[in-house]
Amino acid sequence: MNPFSYGGIVGNGAFCNRTKELADLAETMRSAGRCIVYAERRMGKTSLILRALGKLPKKQFVTVYVDLWPTDGSAAFSEATAKAISTAAESTSKRLLEIGKSLFGRLRPSVSLDNPGQPKIDFGIDGRAVSKTELVEVLAAPQELAEKTGKTVVMVFDEFQQILDYEDDLTERQIRSSIQHQKNVAYVFLGSRKHLLQSMFLDESRPLYRSAMHYPIGPIETKHWRSFISKRFQDADKQIDRQVIDLLCDQTGGHPFYTQHLCHVLWSMTDVGGEVDESVLQLAIEELLRRESHAYVNLWESLTKNEQRFLRGLAQSEESPKPFSSDFTRQFGLRSASNVQRAAESLESSDIIEREESSFVIVDRFLRLWIRQLFSS
Questions:
Q1: CATH number, domain at 183?
Q2: Residues 285-303 pLDDT 10s
Q3: For 35, phi and psi rounded to 5 degrees?
């Protein structure tokens, strides 16, 4: 079975490093702190958080994970949060209904059995708008649960920037009002759109200004990938040279998703007893780009000329470029800093690039390689 996992929640066996991050996040949870964790898409932040939650002893903690990605307003937020809190606290039908009525009486909880016969809780929202009183009840529940159980409650809201698309800022304002006085409740806010999350927590005019510490998650250093990758090849009686691993990580930038994906293809292409050299690595990269080429062509053709030129500049630069410099604008035909600014803002809003210190990075590492290949001939 291929030992390199990508595209979903990564389990223990396929998890590379993140020792410091796990320790830091666990300490935040244990101390009932407030933390905002942000990273590019597919950086593995959800897997990281779920791993951290799994290490907390159940006798001392109630862990609640709420995925806000499918929510579109305060009603959906309330329902998703109430369901997550209820199911984290209890599992049997009777106790599930009891805790639902105790914490969320205004939402009219009911319990039924799903297809596998497991109890599930529902609330009488039915697409209607929720009142401020009902929202307050939902957001007060973690503190009530902590008091009822004598445990620390850990609330995790994934894709937290989704609340910016709600019908108004009631949810955002009420979250700040509700959590600031709570004790024995930790809050971790996850997100993949850094510029939106930073605007929520660093803009003085926003309700959540300075209400949580910032914890960015970046790529994994090559030194940690070396032993991780080589061991998984060796366990299958396959060999990969350290220099090839370094080159592989240079191509993916150490990004977990793209590194695991490329290793997955490379491992599949290598026979038992075989050895991976640079030529095999190049074949694996070409195979990946061939698979993705249709999507990349469609994306490329949807961009303006200035956006294409800007991406080409980022892709072909060996080190972090200075995109607003005269050298960059001249070399890639952008003509002026204002053209660069417009292209950068558009690409960032589309999640094609991400701001990185004084420069930008192309989020999809394979797209970067595809663009380099496009202009290599």
A1: 3.40.50.300
A2: 999 999 999 999 999 999 9
A3: -145, 140
